[in-house]
Amino acid sequence: MSTISESAIPHEPHQPGASPLWCTGCGTDKHLVIESIQSRTPRFSQQLAVFYTCTSCGFSYSHAATVQQAGAILNRRGIQDGLLEFGSHYFHCGEPLRDAKTALRSFEAPQTGRPRSRNSRPEAHLHTKVLRCSCGFELEIPA
Are 74 and 35 contained in the same domain? Predict the structure, then answer.
């Protein structure tokens, strides 16, 4: 039985501050799902701030990685479980989510310790927008 992973750390020139996208729990990159990608500040050539999770063991990681490393994970076929946030855009099933509708959500505010009348129900209101994927997946975010 081999202990060598089916995946390998991408072979590329070392870039200071960029670490491989790799699960130390599983010892592979086979089960990684990228959750979020942001530009780094100050901007470094070809480097991103990447947050990713291993779907096998549940470990999460966040660190600098190269565009090539993130692209290698994102371009794999069959990874459709996760939601990807890229800048102010959200992707599911490999395509951008589209605006579907807006809503006004009301939430009951927590009690503050002061007695309130029985008819008084403090509420918080939040305007949201619903984003939809062609597969039917929906995401509701603050507008």
Answer: yes
> What whole-number distance in Å separates Cα of residue 44 and Cα of residue 85?
20
120 shares its domain with 72: no
Side-chain-side CA neighbours of 56 within 13 Å: the count stands at 11
Strand locations in the chain, DSSP E? 32-39, 47-54, 60-66, 84-86, 89-92, 95-96, 98-108, 123-132, 138-142
Write out the chain's pLDDT in tens, 143 residues. Answer: 333 334 444 444 455 667 889 999 999 998 998 888 887 776 656 688 899 999 999 999 999 888 888 888 877 755 445 676 666 778 777 778 899 999 898 887 666 666 666 666 667 888 999 999 888 888 888 88
Domain identity same for 138 and 113:
yes
> Is 18 within 8 Å of 65 (Cβ atoms)?
yes
Burial degree of 67 (CB within 10 A; 0-12, 13-18, 19+): middle
Structure tokens at 103: 């809503």
